Input
Amino acid sequence: MDAIARAWKKAVRTALPGPWRPRRVVGEAALALLMGGLAALGEFAAGTGLAVPFGLGVAVLWVLRRGLPATVLLAAAAATGWSAGPVLLLICAGWAAGARIRRVWTLVAIFAAGWALFTVTSVVKEAASFSPKLLLGLSLGGFLVLAVLPALYGRYRAQRRALLDALRERNDQLLRERVMVVHQARLRERHRIAQDMHDSLGHQLALISVHSGALEVDRTLTDRQREAVGVLRQAAVAAMRELREVVGVLHDESTAVPPAPGASSAGAARGGADGVGELVESSRAAGAQIELTREGERRPLPAAVDHAAYRIVQEALTNAHKHAPGAPIGVALRYEPDALVVEVTNARAPELVGVRAGAGAAVSGGQGLTGLRERARLVGGMVHAGVTPDQGFRLAAVLPYEGAESTGEGAAAAAGVDAGDDGWVFDGLPPADGADGGRRSPVLGCAVGVVAVGLTLLGLLVWGIVAFVDGNRDATVRKPLYDRIQVGTAEAEVLHELPPGNSFFTEGYERTGPTPPEGAQCRWYSLVGTHADGWNEDHAARFCFRDGVLVEKQQYVATG
Output
């Protein structure tokens, strides 16, 4: 029982999709009564005696048109082929089917089946009054006008509504993405600030620590002075630790992207490869044993490469001061044919006598070498760092001269944003020319359908005119031919002389004129070549046959 109840509920939800608000229920009920009443009125006027069944059926089908558009279309097509009462339902069913059936070929198949039902019911009822060729053309033309054209317009409206909804959704998505990009830009700026703070301020604090360490072992100082220097050293170490913590908060691997080209140029202006000499001099002034060598022919460097070289030397010197204070340091810049090689080496740190235990271990955030490798990678280079055989440390970087050419694209790729020729553009609209997932405009398909239907209707119109002329010719007998045919002539000979006839044009003649001979089979034609006294008078000719012989021919005036 539960399965039957669930199946029943599912069928009801399918046939009557919601939501069914009170206002909608009242509207649907009123429209159902109106459609049913109009259908019943049409059947009553036609005198078919089916007013009540047609009225109730049309009302029920109207309610089901949204949930079962294909079923309602087929039923409406069959009913309209039989009688003109449900014609409004057929128009609305075509609209609903075009709007709600998504697959094109499914829709085409349903409309083909609907036309077949429409034609079959028309043939069953009107075969005696129309020629098959004319009936086929009329059914096709009527179905195209009553069902297919409303379906095309309904499909256009539905696709246009869906496209507008997709555009609104796309616009909202772009607005959200724009907010996200702004947020990411802020994070990238925070990372750049953290990186510069790490490189510049960390280097200066390292020099302060080295100066303090050198003074702390100076025997010329008094104990009070040495204690003050120790406090200064501890303060520098604490400041470096706090700096590392701040850098760790600002640093985010998900937003670690290179600085913008403008930022790189500014950084290069502050230092660059030519500023390495100033770094060496400041370290030498702090008491470090340091030597700078340059090899190769100096050449101008791209801004990004110049800035990377400066930062690599600065970070390497900072690490040497922290981890190997007092050790000799060597800095080398070699201008190779295709790349700049930056190398910083330091020997093992000497044992410093007199330094207090716990004066402060070297502070490391664990991100210095990672940042250097990222800087080198973004300009197309690489960084190698490791311990030397004499327990010292060596850091070497290879920076190609052409590395800056792809910096802009690399920045955009690392940020996950497409950079165009004009930068990032957010205008709140999806890309044009099908760039939003291949979605096509609904106008094209519906316009093709309307043109096809229009051409079909035009062809049917021409076909109807030709069929009308042919049918009228088949139902017409000229006066000389009528006079030439004599009673008593064999039926086969007379039929050979007469046109084939067409009941569509002579249907009214059968109910007028003299009574036919008993047991005879008669043919009626329109008689041409005689004078009519009134505009509504036609001259009819009747030929009656019995036992294979023409037994009577009559001409009379048939009043319309």
About this structure: The radius of gyration is 49 Å. Confidence is low (pLDDT under 50) at residues 252-269, 352-361, 404-439. The chain has 17 helices and nine strands. The longest strand covers residues 549-559.
